[in-house]
Amino acid sequence: MQLETRMQNERVVIAVKEERLDAHNSNELKERILRTLEEGGRRLVVDLSAVKFIDSSGLGALLSGYKNANQRSGSFILSGLQPRVRSMFELTRLNRVFEIYPGLEEALSGQGVG
Amino acid sequence: MQLETRMQNERVVIAVKEERLDAHNSNELKERILRTLEEGGRRLVVDLSAVKFIDSSGLGALLSGYKNANQRSGSFILSGLQPRVRSMFELTRLNRVFEIYPGLEEALSGQGVG
Amino acid sequence: MSVDIVVPNQTRYLRLIGNIAEQIAKELETSCYDQDTLAYHLNLVLTEAVANAIEYGDAKSPNHNVKVCLSIHDKDLRISVYDHGQGFDITSVPAPDLDKLEERGRGIFFIRNLMDTVAYHRSEGGNVLEMHKSLG
Amino acid sequence: MSVDIVVPNQTRYLRLIGNIAEQIAKELETSCYDQDTLAYHLNLVLTEAVANAIEYGDAKSPNHNVKVCLSIHDKDLRISVYDHGQGFDITSVPAPDLDKLEERGRGIFFIRNLMDTVAYHRSEGGNVLEMHKSLG
Ligand SMILES: Nc1ncnc2c1ncn2[C@@H]1O[C@H](COP(=O)(O)OP(=O)(O)O)[C@@H](O)[C@H]1O
Ligand SMILES: Nc1ncnc2c1ncn2[C@@H]1O[C@H](COP(=O)(O)OP(=O)(O)O)[C@@H](O)[C@H]1O
């Protein structure tokens, strides 16, 4: 799975460089997020701008990240959701749970974060 | 089938606005070329830059245009072949038959034409 | 029109199955549905159903196959996904509590939401998830 | 892995079949082949074979179907295209004279060029074009 992790504006940005986030690769994303938290990362941004398709396991991996970041008093935000990906968050009402920014730039300059 | 016909630099440009030129639509291209010739068009350019896939019937439609233009002492040139489309011309050696320009601009300013 | 697909029970084939579903959606004439939305929905329904067939269907035999049948006749779309596992009672799977932040349990929810009818029963020495949607 | 497709014998389905072939090509592990080139070639072979099955296969019954079977096992790709026409002797189809500017007659040429073996014979109350290619 293509995942890019980098520091930017004192956040750890994990950019998912895959068109699909599904049961084939979502576990790898979940592990990467966990490892980032274990290594001390506290302000996480997951950039989904390349993702055209997400399934229930992809949503699950993001929820896992969200919960684990909260447990550690970290922040966990999402950016760059394409419209159809966003509609899956809406169908499951997860758009009310996650802090979601249109693009990475907004996410990095976001107020009230972490 | 999406075909755009327009006059440009005293040529008739027929732009194929389809990703596939196959047995489903090649006859329509063939008819359009014939009609253009019947209506007096003599210097034809077929722009294939949007075409990602061509089959034997697509090649046949272009050959029909080539032969009919020649019969009427007209010119018939092709532009904008994508690499894989071009390789079908090579496999059938039709690249030696057709006058082919990389892009429409070159085709319109081409020397020794019509 | 119908398309039958048999792939090894490995998640790497989810993409192929989902993509084929999208290609089929592109050819469907629908009045009440945006074509790209329908493509996403069919992709999702198949991805969820096949992921379950892989996860719950006989993990002991890693070389087992998963079979998917898609058919469209007169605006009736039917999808069947076969597995060789223990099976389950789909009617007893509750709708997920969307306010609880469970990591799992949204697959059947998506399928029920996006298809008109969903049933699961024994078939061909295994089980089949049968789904139907009218594109009318 | 295998994919079977049944579509009405209408050329508008060539695109679907060609696109499915491209999706399958994307999943194949090939050492000796560029993936996009393989995708184009499979698309072309299927487009040509199915176009022939539609054109020469029982035009009298406009509601007839065309069946295509694709399978890959151990780097062996097999494609079968069924038709319900009069049939023909493929061994007597000559290679086209590429210097003559015939509008037709390049379909079988492409198929022979891009596949390792090609055969055509009676089958299932009709005919089948069987093609094979090693992706090894
Ligand atoms: N093909 C299947 N065979 C057996 N059990 C299944 C199958 N599909 C679904 N289930 C059961 O239904 C439950 C809900 O499935 P689903 O909504 O996809 O969520 P998840 O798979 O994430 O748990 C699963 O936890 C499983 O117990
Ligand atoms: N499925 C088929 N049934 C009967 N005849 C066929 C079939 N496929 C091909 N042929 C014969 O083989 C010839 C060559 O086919 P092809 O190379 O595809 O060229 P084209 O179809 O353009 O003539 C056709 O003209 C036809 O006579």
What does the model show?
The complex is a heterotetramer, with two copies of chain A (114 residues) and two copies of chain C (136 residues). Chain A has 114 residues and is α/β, with parallel strands linked by helices. Chain A is 38% helix and 25% strand. Chain A is built from four helices and seven strands, in the order βββαββαβαβα. In chain A, the strands form two sheets. A five-stranded mixed sheet of chain A has the order 1-2-4-6-7. In chain A, strands 3-5 form a two-stranded parallel ribbon. In chain A, a hairpin with a 2-residue loop joins strand 1 and strand 2 (11-16). In chain A, helix 1 packs parallel to helix 2 (56-71). The model of chain A has no long low-confidence stretch (mean pLDDT 95). Chain C is an alpha+beta fold and 136 residues long. In chain C, strands 1-2-3-5-4 form a five-stranded antiparallel sheet, with helices on one face. In chain C, a hairpin with a 2-residue loop joins strand 2 and strand 3. In chain C, helix 1 (14-27) runs antiparallel to helix 2 (35-56). Chains in contact: A-C, B-D, C-D. The interface between B and D is medium-sized, with 21 and 28 residues. Strand 1 (2-8) of chain C pairs antiparallel with strand 1 (2-8) of chain D. One adenosine-5'-diphosphate is lined by residues 48, 52-53, 56-57, 83, 85, 87-88, 93, 104-109 of chain D.
Defining key terms:
heterotetramer; A: about 110 residues; globular; C: alpha+beta; five-stranded antiparallel sheet
Give the tally of β-strands of chain A: 7
Low-confidence stretches of chain A: none
Strand content of chain C: 25-35%
Radius of gyration of chain A: 13 Å
- Strand percentage of chain A, roughly? 25-35%
Report strand order across the widest sheet of chain A.
1-2-4-6-7
Number of strands of chain C: 5
The secondary-structure element order of chain C is: EHHEEHEE
**End-to-end CA span of chain A:** 28 Å
One letter per element, helices H and strands E, the order of chain A comes to: EEEHEEHEHEH
Present as ligands are:
adenosine-5'-diphosphate
The biggest beta sheet of chain C, please? Answer: 5 strands, antiparallel
Measure the end-to-end span of chain C. 16 Å
Which percent range fits the helix content of chain C? Answer: 25-40%
